[in-house]
Amino acid sequence: GRGAARVLGEAGTLGGSVAWGFRAGRAGLAWEAQRFPGAKRMLARFRKHNVHVAASGFPGVIKTSPLFEELEDRGWLLTREDGSAQVFDGIAATSGQPYGLLDLTYRDIYNLWVERHRQLVEDGLDAPACDAQIAIPDGVTARNGETGPALRSMYPLLVRRALFDAVAGLKVPPEGVVPSTDLFPAAQRLPWQVGPQVDNTWEGLRHTLRTALSIGASGLPVQVHGIGTASRGTADMTPELYLRWLTAGVFSANFSFQGVNGLLPWDFGDETLAHVKTWMQWRYRLVPYVLGAIEDAARTGLPVQRSMALSFPNDPHAHEWDLQYLLGPALLVAPITAPGKQVRVYLPKGEAWWDLNTGHRYEGGTTWTIDCELGQFPVFGREGHMLCLGPAAQHTGEFNSARILDEVWMFGMPVHNPVVMRNKIRVMQMQGSSYIKGLEGLRISPSEGLEVKRRGAEVRISRAR
């Protein structure tokens, strides 16, 4: 049980070494005393500033620790054929030291792992994380008889499900975030997938996008995009690449800044920083839509970022555009993944699409070359849908849960209920007009050729006369 602290949310990601581990000689977890002498107080200060902290742990017990021999005697570790504990070669999570693995197939040990992490959550930890990427040999056996091949599939699931139980088990309904890079059967039930480690290059951006769309097609709803990779060199990360990477993240399920010099917004000059601030405002305004898409994904199994092949199965030409995607049901995103301001965009046939930058309407089944300066990004609204935006904010602590919406953008005549976080907005058609309940008090930006009339709690959208 070793871990490293990082920050999710307002402050991006902070690198760090071991943050907590087993108490000396005891099967309990404790914060690393020298670096975190007052963990509760430290986490409370983060929370005061609306920052959510994740800690990455590992269910290993160092071979040279007093606890290893005790747990081996109890039969709490995965074993070899002769009944002794399997000793694994050291990895980064154990600082290179050989270790044994807790046998999480055994109910008592699983419950202990959950309870110890629940204590960390009670201390103020928001999201326990674990990447249990372990090569378990065929000869290794668990207490109930499972061996290597089965354990290689089961173990990452058990680790991640236990952490979810720790953070979400006391909530009704159970909910929480457990980020991880592991893929395993039923991973879609724990939807927060961490993106790949890539070079800080244009190819790295393309790799990140392809990975997100591939795992989405496998049923995992959410990938967290890193804006670059902290562990890779920063020499190739130009201001242009940084902004294109960030805007792809803004129009995605989730993203995280990297807390290292050379990958922070203020490392690229004042002009770039001003663009970053603009895009962060866009992100906050998109939060109700994105969270609504996440809720929708949890119900339907469709990912938040949907590949063209998944979204438009009856348009074979769309399948060739492997870096475009739908963000939720209403927005088509065509990320700029090469230097320069031009991008080729394919708009699927059978529908019309509205350019969010210009308000121009395009018929589907067409390919366009779009010019986008650094303050623009190619995003298109799907006709018949609405985009519900929240108010501008500096951090999530400013959100008013009773009024999460501020403005509605129409893409032609609305015929679909919008995807919005926990809001009930209903669209009905009568005599050529759309009647919408749930938009009380919101600013409404209609498409050209439409007019908006309010009647009490109802909004009527009709063709302009």
Automatic annotation (TrEMBL):
Domain Glycosyl hydrolase family 31 C-terminal as annotated: residue spans: 301-387
Alphabetized Gene3D superfamilies for the sequence: Glycosidases, Golgi alpha-mannosidase II
Transmembrane segments: none
Listed InterPro entries: GH (IPR017853), Glyco_hydro_31_C (IPR048395), Glyco_hydro_31_TIM (IPR000322), Glyco_hydro_b (IPR013780), Glycosyl_Hydrolase_31 (IPR051816)
One Pfam family from the record: Glyco_hydro_31_2nd
UniProt GO BP: carbohydrate metabolic process
PANTHER family: HYDROLASE, PUTATIVE (AFU_ORTHOLOGUE AFUA_1G03140)-RELATED (PTHR43863), MALTASE-GLUCOAMYLASE (PTHR43863:SF2)
Family: Belongs to the glycosyl hydrolase 31 family.
Name of the featured protein: Glycoside hydrolase family 31 protein
